[in-house]
Structures are given as structure tokens and as C-alpha cells.
Amino acid sequence: MRRIFHDAITLYCRLLSLYKTAAVLLCVPVAIAVFCTNASAIGFDAEKTYDSVFVIYADLSLGSGFSIGKDLIITNAHVVADAGKITVVNYRGDEFSANISALDEELDIAALWVDNADFPVLKISDYRESKVGEDVYAIGTPNSMDYTLTKGVLSAKDRRLGSNHYLQIDAAINSGNSGGPLLNDSG
């Protein structure tokens, strides 16, 4: 009787071992597929996009900005308002002197002009074509860490604060991100 019991236990352990091996072998391709999907989830070349993003120094203020024209950079008004000297620095470390071309403190937006510049331009998309729940990416200089990419989700498309409409996101935004671009999966 012991021999039959011993053989049954041995067979059970072998089957369990085979089952575990099969389970592991099935899990590995699934894990690889999930990892590869997540690893390539971003739909644009972030480092190429960095060529259109700038660190902005305005007196004692630090922020971010991005080019929308060959010599035009957008940032937040609070980054550059009342600044005596504005310096923008690109991803390669080149420094440029900038002047305020337009500023709207209520909308907290400013346009900076850089004389004789030829920056790569970020394409502006229509927010109305975006969908709540889609991935968004912020590029900026949070806490003085230049060219930081942060991923989040578009939480709402039409939040109202006073008479202005805003996008609501859950990406981590910190001091120094101000003025940086918010990108969709197409960049």
C-alpha cells in the first residue's frame, strides 16, 4: 500500500512540476508582450521633441517653453513677467537672449521672440480632437531638472476657471514645468 501511495505522490509532484513549468512558459511570452507594448507605448521621439523645448531663465525665475515659429517661443506669463533679462537654453546647451513679444497675464501666456533664430517647431493640435483618458506627456524643467518627460492622462477637456477653459491632466507638474508643452501620443 505504501508503494502505491508513494507512486501516486511522485506522479502528483511530477504533474505539478510540469504544470508549473507550463504556467511559467505561458507567462513568459505574455510578460514579454506586455513589456514590449508598454516600452514602445509613446508614439513620438521624445529626444527629437526636446529640440523644440527650452529652459527659460528670467531674472530669478525658472521655467520652460517651446517653439511655435522659427524664432517664437511660448511660455507662461508668470515665468517672464517683469523680467529684465530673459535667456532661453536649448537641449544642446546653446543660450539665446529673448524678448517678450506678447504677454497676457489673465491667460498666463507669453510669446518670446529670439532674433535670428531658426528653431524646430512643435505642431499645435486641436484639443477638441483629444479624448478623455488618452495619454499626455509634459516636458519641462521640474525642480531644476532640465528636460524631464512626465506621463499622465487627460482627465477632462473643458474645465472652467472663471471665463477660461482648461485641460485637466494628472501628470506630475512641479515648479519649473511652467510654460512647457503638453503633448499627445503623436507628439
Descriptive overview:
The protein is of the alpha+beta class. It is 25% helix and 35% strand. The strands form two sheets. It has a six-stranded antiparallel beta barrel. A four-stranded antiparallel sheet has the order 9-8-7-10, with no helix packed on it. It is globular, with a radius of gyration of 26 Å. The protein starts with a helix and ends with a strand.
Number of helices: 3
End-to-end span in angstroms? 71 Å
Summarize the biggest pleated sheet.
Answer: 6 strands, antiparallel, barrel
Strand content: 35-45%
Pairing-aware structural class of the strands and helices? alpha+beta
Number of strand segments? 10
Task: Provide mean pLDDT, rounded.
Answer: 83
Question: Would you list the SSEs in sequence order as H and E?
Answer: HHEEEHEEEEEEE
List the helices and strands and how they pair.
Elements: H1 2-39, H2 46-49, E1 53-58, E2 61-69, E3 72-75, H3 77-80, E4 86-89, E5 95-104, E6 109-113, E7 135-140, E8 148-161, E9 164-169, E10 182-183
Antiparallel strand pairs: 1-2, 1-4, 2-3, 3-6, 4-5, 5-6, 7-8, 7-10, 8-9
